[in-house]
Amino acid sequence: MTTRTKRPNEKDGVDYHFVSPDEFKAKIRQGAFLEWAEVYDGVLYGTPRETVERIIRSGDVALLVIDVQGGRAVKAIFPEAVLVFLVPPSLDSLSRRLKQRGLETDEQIQKRLSKARTEMKYLPAYDYGVGNDDGKQQSTVDAIRGIIAAERRRISRWEPQ
After folding, report:
1. Do the beta carbons of residue 133 and residue 139 sit within 8 Å?
2. Is the whole-model pTM more than 0.85?
3. Can you give the pLDDT at residue 97?
4. What is 1-60's CATH topology?
5. Which of 128-158 are b and which e, b meaning 16 or more Cβ less than 10 Å from the residue's Cβ?
6. Which residues fall within 8 angstroms of residue 32, CB to CB, at 6 or more apart?
C-alpha cells in the first residue's frame, strides 16, 4: 500500500493499493501494517498484515519487496522469514536506471543513491544476496525462485507426520 501517485502503467490493487495519506495513517493507528515506512519525500509505503497472514495460513509464500527497515520489522515478527537482498551491480548502474525511468528529479535520485549506500551496510543481516544485474532480470527471478525452492526443502520447515 502506498500514498504515492500511481504511475501510468500501474493498476490499483495489482501493483499497489494507492490510498490517501489520511487513509494510510488511519491504518497505521489500527495496527493494520506488518511494516510501514515513510520512504521518500513524505511518501508512505506499507505491507498490510492481514494479507501476509492469509498467504502464510494458506501455505503459500509471501514475497515482499521492502526496504531494509521493513525487512528488520518483518524478521522481528516472523523470525523464520527469509531475507533476500537484491544487490545492484553498482551505484552508477542504479543511478542510470533511475535516470532512465525519468520519474524523479536529480535531487530525488541523489537521495535514493544515498539511501542505497546506507542500506548496503545491512547486507550481513540478510540470509541471501542476489545480484540484480542490468539486462539480466530473468536471472534474478530464477535465483529467487531457487531460494524459495531450497527453503521449502529445509528440514526445519517440514511438519511432523
Report:
1. yes
2. no
3. 85
4. Guanylate Kinase phosphate binding domain (3.30.63)
5. eebebeeeeeeeeeebbeeeeeebeeeeeee
6. 48, 49, 50
